[in-house]
Design goal:
Number of strands: 7
Radius of gyration: 16 Å
Distance between the termini: 33 Å
Number of helices: 6
Largest sheet: 7 strands, parallel
Shape: globular
Helix content: 25-40%
Order of helices and strands: HEHEHEHEEHEHE
Structural class: alpha/beta
Oligomer: single chain
Strand order of the largest sheet: 3-4-2-5-6-1-7
């Protein structure tokens, strides 16, 4: 069951994707508040439009977690999801890259391995950058320069000052998920 914040974020993303101008949105919410669910639903919109999706993660552990989440969420749908990270193995990497370049993969989840030269983004429709503060501006521009105006969503629990300044200047839209999903225990951090 979606929270009102998730519904608002999903509706904003649907609206953004339907516009001619590519989406450039930051999705901000604490750990466990449902950012991944919003990303999964947003990715489906792109897949339904015959466009590919990439999910960029800063670590192998996070890419593995997202891969498992996406596989479980899409298990009843005809969606081809693959993982590209340092554990993929060189033979498997070449096969995954070739399949992605030939539009045989709908969602490609990966780490910095997505920046390699032979990964082509000819049919890229949606980019999700998880923990976007862990990637530099040059990396983000390199990723976007390889494709033609994809929709971009950056997810973060802790937006950096530069990101906040960009949103306040109106260069990026901002969605905030501030409500914990039902039956989800609160997260308490202590020092």
């Amino acid at each position: 069951i979606e929270t009102p914040d998730q519904v608002e974020a999903i509706n904003s993303i649907k609206k953004d994707i339907s516009l001619i101008k590519p989406m450039n949105r930051v999705l901000c919410g604490d750990v466990g508040f449902g950012k991944t669910e919003v990303a999964m639903r947003s990715a489906y919109i792109s897949i339904h439009s015959n466009k590919q999706v990439i999910i960029l993660c800063p670590s192998t552990v996070l890419s593995d977690q997202l891969y498992e989440s996406f596989l479980n969420r899409y298990k009843n749908f005809p969606v081809n999801i693959k993982l590209l990270n340092r554990h993929s193995g060189s033979k498997n990497k070449a096969s995954i890259v070739s399949s992605f370049n030939n539009n045989e993969i709908d969602i490609l989840i990966g780490t910095h391995a997505l920046f390699q030269k032979d990964v082509k983004f000819n049919n890229l429709g949606f980019v999700v950058i998880d923990e976007q503060h862990r990637f530099g501006v040059n990396q983000r521009q390199k990723l976007l320069s390889k494709s033609i105006n994809p929709n971009l969503m950056a997810m973060t629990a802790t937006p950096i000052p530069r990101t906040l300044a960009i949103t306040y200047n109106g260069d990026m839209d901002l969605s905030i998920i501030d409500e914990l999903p039902k039956n989800r225990p609160d997260i308490h951090t202590s020092f």
